[in-house]
Amino acid sequence: MSSILFEIRDQIAFITLNRPEKLNAFNREMALSLQNRLDECASLHEVRAVYLTGAGKGFSAGQDLAEIVDPQGPGMEQILSEHYNPIITRIRHLPKPVIAAVRGVAAGAGANIALCCDVVVASASASFIQAFSKIGLIPDSGGTYFLPRLIGWQRASAIAMLGDKIVAGEAERIGMVYKVFEDKDFETASQALAVTLAQLPTRALAFTKHALNYSSVNSFEAQLQLEDELQQKAATTQDYAEGVQAFLGKRPANFKGE
Ligand code: T3D
Question: N or C: less crowded end of the chain, CB within 10 Å?
Answer without folding.
Answer: N
